[in-house]
């Protein structure tokens, strides 16, 4: 048996405590699989006095977590503090500079600083691992970095936020509207008091930018993710989608296309989409996450599981530690950082496909003619159009339509033509329809 | 850039040619990800004259494939010949003895000889990899060996044979019977001329025994897999299951329970099962494979994708080669072979759950009374019982029932009580019902 892998653990929230519990509960099997013991030597958190339900006395307490990086008795620093900057980032930089391996569940930090950290860890010959930063317990970073490594990835997409998926699938089951469902989700602990990051797609965008970098060999570019949340999705949209054979999911999507210069351009978007009921993502309900990678040889690969929670996240953190203990950790983004390409952000306009549009309109004559004329003028061909029979309490009527296959820029043009129209009570909700 | 990883490729069927095509099509990205070129230096197959649609002239041809192991210019031997013994096994032994890494897609060989080969490769300090042997392009060996490595696996189960799943899901969609569907599947190339290995569960059992070894740290024990195929499943069973809220899938299942001595006992079975429509495996149709691992911290992880085919299988083979090129290949069964435990085969009798039983009976008075009396005498509690209205052409009536939760041994006892009864025209079909 080799020497233990000595761990400093920063952050003792639910995930940090989950890691401690896991290493206690599964000690023997983790040691056998890792080939050496995984031993926590030091811990740190804001409040030492808090009762966290586990005995922390075996571990040296560090008041200043960034000091953990300086400890001679530590091989790897695990950061479970959160926040894209601040103490987490300082700790990361210090740890790498002190030749420690670094493991984190911090998606915001990796989305913003992952490239710089990877570059630093490369220079120091240390491992940087962040399986837990994407889709909780699902080994999808590994699945892409290694499992699908032989493939050119054509698209990577999936359900990357459990809160948004919980809300959408609950609306689907109950018929309730967004506001009520969000409130219930908050009461049940499925949504935070400030749910913005989850429901507006920011959290999913963090994860997507990491997955896109690994999949396409691109430099992480979180700022280029086009992001739209689910707060505008109505019960009526879900009902309409159902009739048409779809469910609505918040989908993070990335692919690469060549632009005119021949250079690759990276499309990254997080948006509510219509998913055909025959597609595996249509059956993903509740707080579950699921990622689809379409490889040019593997075909469609699906990775599904719990996207959050102390147990699943701890499982991913310790999997990273086992990789490090085994000496099986390589380039965090699959290739050396020098090989990562700074890709132009792609416009989605040239993409073709079917689109769902939902208009809220005033209940008066000529509105349908105005909308359909805009579609015609923008060369959008309509496959089906459904107008709700009666105006709702606000005097609004909902008009939903599905286009034939066509370029997204035509749909954008049609929407632009209708912009400012007195007939529309709000901008239309436009959702891409995934292919089965 | 480091020196190339030099490959000898034995077997030039669809998968072997798939590997060549992949390494041509994705050459640059594979080189970048692997950190070095993956270079085929030598190939071998039975017939040199066959036109395989790819140019083999760059590669040295070996008439005797087992001689590949002796080549000084080879680092890794890839075996895509098949067969649990014979030339494939000789090649494996020779390659490992000659200090070559060894990669194979041969599930039968790994199920029968994987332990001995792992032991040999350990002694020689070489890698033994077989991702492609289980579930084609799905990186599930890696998912268990590494992704879920922090977990005690509670159960591992899934759809491990594409042909059987194609037949069952086609029967489900069409309402056709087994024989017709099999014939169509053969005509379409989804089933082989001799489909025995696929439809009787042997192929799935090979894969299950490999997954079980990795999941539970057990010595591979293919002979202990209880195996039952799908040929007795009727259209009426599928229709009945549908009414009750289930689909029928051929499920490979493994878990570990303690026996009286306190030692772990390994349950391995491949059997048609009822899967609740809300379970992710219920939506797996066609030739797709899907594996569920339930970890004590990760919760339920699902890996899904193409279980066969030249592209997906080549994807898995080359992923193994990339691992080797990166120096990230470890113990093939996750732990050193000396740590693998020879587990007793477990009886399923003590497992509790719901069971579906379908009887074919003669159409005469008293039959239901006989069946229900046997259930009562064996302490099987019936949740629902459905008797088909009319006898079919053969004068048979179908009686289907679902039990309440209870030990499987009680169901076995009830079936034993009815054994030899003149009322039954055939032994009942007994299927476990998976929990949602």
TrEMBL record, chains A, B:
The keyword Signal belongs to this UniProt entry's keyword annotation: no
Similarity field: Belongs to the homoserine dehydrogenase family.
Functional pathway: Amino-acid biosynthesis; L-threonine biosynthesis; L-threonine from L-aspartate: step 3/5; Amino-acid biosynthesis; L-methionine biosynthesis via de novo pathway; L-homoserine from L-aspartate: step 3/3
Residues annotated to bind L-homoserine: 192
Classification of source organism: Bacteria, Pseudomonadati, Pseudomonadota, Alphaproteobacteria, Sphingomonadales
CDD domains: ACT_HSDH-Hom
MF-aspect GO terms: homoserine dehydrogenase activity; NADP binding
Domain spans labelled ACT: 356-431
EC number: 1.1.1.3
NCBIfam families: PRK06349.1
Keywords from the UniProt entry: Amino-acid biosynthesis, Methionine biosynthesis, NADP, Oxidoreductase, Threonine biosynthesis
Pfam families xref list: ACT, Homoserine_dh, NAD_binding_3
Highest taxon, organism lineage: Bacteria
Residue numbers annotated as active site: 207 (proton donor)
Binding, NADPH: 107
Gene3D superfamilies named in the record: 3.30.70.260, Dihydrodipicolinate Reductase, domain 2 (3.30.360.10), NAD(P)-binding Rossmann-like Domain (3.40.50.720)
NADP among keywords: yes
Name of the protein: Homoserine dehydrogenase
Biological processes per GO annotation: methionine biosynthetic process; threonine biosynthetic process
Coiled coil stretches, renumbered: none
């Amino acid at each position: 048996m080799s020497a233990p892998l000595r761990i400093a653990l920063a952050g003792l929230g639910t995930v940090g405590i989950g890691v401690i519990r896991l290493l206690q509960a599964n000690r023997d099997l983790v040691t056998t699989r890792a080939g050496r013991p995984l031993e926590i030597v030091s811990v740190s958190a804001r409040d030492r006095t808090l009762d966290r339900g586990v005995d922390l006395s075996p571990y040296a307490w560090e008041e200043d977590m960034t000091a953990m990086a300086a400890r001679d008795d530590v091989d790897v620093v695990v950061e479970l503090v959160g926040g894209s900057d601040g103490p987490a980032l300082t700790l990361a930089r210090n740890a790498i500079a002190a030749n420690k391996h670094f493991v984190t569940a911090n998606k915001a930090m990796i989305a913003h600083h992952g490239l710089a950290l990877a570059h630093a860890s490369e220079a120091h010959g240390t491992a940087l691992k962040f399986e837990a930063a994407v889709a909780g317990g699902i080994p999808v970073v590994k699945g892409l970095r290694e499992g699908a490594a032989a493939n050119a990835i054509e698209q990577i997409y999936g359900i990357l936020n459990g809160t948004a998926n919980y809300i959408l699938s609950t609306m689907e089951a109950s018929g309730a509207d967004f506001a009520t469902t969000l409130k219930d989700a908050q009461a049940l602990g499925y949504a935070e008091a400030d749910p913005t990051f989850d429901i507006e797609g920011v959290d999913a965008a963090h994860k997507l930018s990491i997955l896109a970098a690994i999949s396409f060999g691109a430099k992480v570019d979180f700022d280029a993710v086009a992001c739209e949340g689910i707060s505008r999705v109505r019960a009526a949209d879900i009902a309409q989608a159902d009739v048409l054979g779809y469910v609505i999911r918040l989908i993070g999507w990335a692919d690469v296309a060549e632009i005119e210069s021949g250079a690759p351009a990276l499309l990254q978007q997080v948006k509510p989409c219509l998913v055909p009921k025959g597609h595996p993502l249509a059956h993903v309900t509740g707080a579950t996450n699921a990622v689809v990678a379409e490889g040019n040889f593997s075909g469609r690969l699906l990775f599904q599981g719990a996207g959050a929670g102390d147990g699943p996240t701890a499982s991913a953190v310790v999997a990273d530690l086992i990789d490090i203990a085994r000496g099986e950790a390589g380039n965090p983004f699959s290739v050396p950082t020098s090989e990562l390409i700074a890709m132009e952000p792609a416009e989605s306009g040239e993409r073709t496909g079917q689109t769902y549009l939902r208009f809220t309109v005033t209940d008066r004559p000529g509105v349908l003619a105005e909308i359909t004329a805009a579609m015609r003028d923008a060369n959008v061909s309509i496959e089906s159009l459904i107008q709700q029979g009666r105006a709702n309490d606000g005097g609004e009527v909902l008009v939903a339509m599905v286009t034939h296959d066509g370029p997204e820029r035509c749909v954008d043009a049609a929407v632009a033509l209708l912009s400012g129209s007195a007939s529309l009570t709000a901008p239309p909700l436009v959702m891409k329809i995934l292919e089965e």
